[in-house]
Amino acid sequence: MNIPRFFKTVLITLVFLVCANYLAKAQNTAYLFTYFTGNSGAEESIRFAISKDGYTFRALNNNQPIISSSAISETGGVRDPHILRGADGKTFYMVVTDMVSAKGWDSNRAMVLLKSTDLINWTSSIVNIQKRFAGNENLKRVWAPQTIYDEKVGKYMVYWSMKHGNDPDKIYYAYTNADFTDFTTEPKQLYFSPTNGAAIDGEIIYHQGKYHLFYKTEGSGLGIRLAISNELTKGYVLQDGAVQQTKDPVEGAGVFKLNTGEGYILMYDRYMSGKYQFTKTTDFKKFSVIDSDISMDFHPRHGTIMPITAQEAKRLMDKWYQPERTLFGAKSSAIKKINVVTDTSKKTIFLPVKSGTNLKAFNPNFLDLPNISISPKAPYDFSKGPVKITATNGKTKETYLISAAVNNNPVLDGYYADPEILYSKQTGKYYIYPTSDGFNGWSGTYFKTFSSTNLVDWKDEGVILDLPTHTKWAKKNAWAPTIIEKKINGVYKYFYYFTAAQKIGVAVADHPTGPFTDLGVPLISHKPNGIKGGQEIDPDVFTDPKTGKSYLYWGNMYMAVAPLNEDMMSIDTAAIKIITPNSSFREGTEVFYRKGKYYFMWSEDDTRSENYRVRYGYSDSPTGKITIPENNLVLAKDIAQGVYGTGHNSVIQIPGKDEWYIIYHRFTRPKGITMGDAAGFNRETCIDKMEFNEDGSIRKVIPTLKGIDKLK
């Protein structure tokens, strides 16, 4: 066929463009995350992490700084790193806030500009806005710079927020010189919040012919907002509503495009809760939370992510990543990830797995990171003992002995403490009601429940009571609940007693999973007469099988009891009685009845202590006096197994059988014992069998990793 030269040229051009576009898309095969980690010392430094898929990130250089802050900054610390690939495709630009938070939030006037051609070696320059530009005498702070290439003028533009005097923070911009060491233009206002709140932490993304400016505001319209313009340096119009998908305070929005072409990820720092949230979008209108898909072995603060090539990823991995670390992050959902035990000196890893896992052919799903290979390939037969597995980057090899076994303890995935357990006659299921743990200083605000038919496999039934949403009288410190099932006028009711803001409340529902309706006021908010210390926390509810009368117990540093009125929503205040067993009592009362005896259990010491433990006494009455046996220790730490801080328990009797189980929390294992006081709010829930001697005394329970077998 004869094709005219003009059409041949057009055809060749089209083919070239298609191929170039394909190669451009194929070029970026990984992601680089740059971030800082906190507000003290070396935490205010630039760190790197890497990912192959944009969802699983692993810290480079063992989560240590890749650049010394003192070597590049005016203040000795840097924050809010933003990284950009240059227009030439091979030069990289990074900007950071030059600031140490310990000196105050209004203490900095500078930023640092950095440049690199290999992502390893960086040159830097400090730009102090107050010194560099006149008219900034009342400048208070310079925050969160970012860089974008302005194609119209052929220059790099840095934009950042500044606060002058009592004015709100506004976003400014200036163009840099070719060396990226200084500005060639005066700072000019880019954007201010129409709500007259602060406008900080700007992030500009070009999408479908428009510039999308994400920023944080405070005051009216609190959160991360989006303004859109046809031009880079002006005309931004604020869109309706905030874009964050959380009620937590947020800052530091970062957006990156997925290499797969599946859309964008918007992430931001939930700075008050110490967590990051990731969301996915294709149109910058709807954002779906994808936190469950994200895996990180570090805790970032305000950072940004940039797609990188395979060659760039290899360079970074060779410089700052040890191949063995690929074996540390097995992703299989069958693994209890927070309980994995790694010993780098002995080159061993233990993988605790969930009930039902086939150990004869198990794939741990080790990390898939750039330039790392693992041999032999999965699946592995762990039923016969440890397996030798090697990770290599082509130069360095590391071999570990890896073993796996079923560990039913902890029974719940994640951090949960102070577990209360209930068997529901209405549903024929067991329910655990714990404190939602893992929050600094026990600052959780909601309660969940979990259901099971066999005490081993537990289903998350979700939040049943959220203090900010469901209570008027307390918004913080959701702790240590208890519950009872009652049949009233032929209808099952569930009365849920809980601690909130160091007071005790009550809520009621028609089903074990709620919804629960709060009474509207605290049930107990003051100390009993004669009590001067301690706290009004840790309720326990018990119905005397002899009389059908229900009682409420509570107290920290004292044990109080009062009969519940028939409505189960109030107590007989005239009958409050203090029945503290002895000086070992701290908190966590648990009462049950067996063979004519009323058993009282409690926790000794402090929940932050490795020696937190359970003791017991008994009585011939639900209101005491309590007799204390000579050997009354029920549960304590087991150093050989690495189990510490065992306490705040409940018990359950299997219906129709003299078969009993103790439900308790422990420090998270294996890291808890290394966490100091933080171990006291990073706890996990376990179940072990509890047995009695012929005389009715309770045998000491040895905490186990294996846990119990499924009920039949």
From TrEMBL:
Keyword Endoplasmic reticulum: no
Pathway(s) per entry: Glycan metabolism; L-arabinan degradation
InterPro entries on file: GH43_arabinanases, Glyco_hydro_43, Glyco_hydro_beta-prop_sf
Key words of the record: Glycosidase, Hydrolase, Signal
GO molecular function, one term: hydrolase activity, hydrolyzing O-glycosyl compounds
Entry-linked SUPFAM superfamilies: Arabinanase/levansucrase/invertase
One record GO biological process: carbohydrate metabolic process
Leader peptide range in chain numbering: 1-26
Similarity comment: family membership: Belongs to the glycosyl hydrolase 43 family.
PANTHER family: ARABINAN ENDO-1,5-ALPHA-L-ARABINOSIDASE, ARABINAN ENDO-1,5-ALPHA-L-ARABINOSIDASE A-RELATED
Name the record gives this protein: Family 43 glycosylhydrolase
Species in which this protein is naturally found: Pedobacter planticolens
